[in-house]
Amino acid sequence: MIFEQLELGSFATNCYIIGCSETRIGAVVDPGDEGDFILDKLNSLQLQCKYIILTHGHIDHIGALAEVHAATGADVLIHSADAARLVNPNRYSYFLSVNFKLPTADRLLEDGDTIHVGNITWEVIHTPGHTPGGICLKSGNLLITGDTLFAFSVGRSDLPGGSHQVLINSIKTRLLGFADETRIFPGHGPVSTIGAEKRFNPFL
User: pTM for the whole thing?
Assistant: First the structure.
C-alpha cells in the first residue's frame, strides 16, 4: 500500500494520498488546499488518481477539489448527508468569504460501503457529529478519521449541522471498538492510536 500524509494550507489540513503499489491506482482524501502540490505528489508516486474521497464538506477539506478534479478526472465521493455542501459550497463556507464552484459528487457514500483503490479496500464508516455526513475510512490497521477524532481531542461541533452528543456517540460506538493498535490519521494534527485515545483522550 502507498500512504502519504500532506499538511496543506493555512488551516494545516491533512490530505492523504492512498494507492495500490501493484496497480498504481490511487485516491486523494480531503484535498483541502495547494492543488499543485497534491498533483505533483501523485505524479512523483506514479499514481493514476481514480477517486477523490471527502471525509466531509467543510471548506478546509475541499478547497483544492476543483483543481485536482479538473486535472485528474477522478470521481468525487462524499457521504449523501454532506453532498449539498458541494452543490452550494458558499452557503457552508464558514471561514472564508469566497465564491467558488465545485464538481458535484459522482458517488454518494453510505455507512458500510467499500471503496476499491486498486487491490486495496477501504471501508466507509459513517461518523456524524462534526457534520451530518462525516465519515472515516478504514483499511487494515489504518483509520483516516477526518475531523471526527484527533490525537487527544475531537472535532468541533458548534457549526451548523454539528452535535457534540452525536459526535461523541459516533466515536465511542463506531471507532473505539477497533483494536488498540489501530493507527488514526486525523484531518488535522499528529497521528495517534485507538489505544492511546481510549486511555488519554479527555473528551472520551
Answer: 0.95
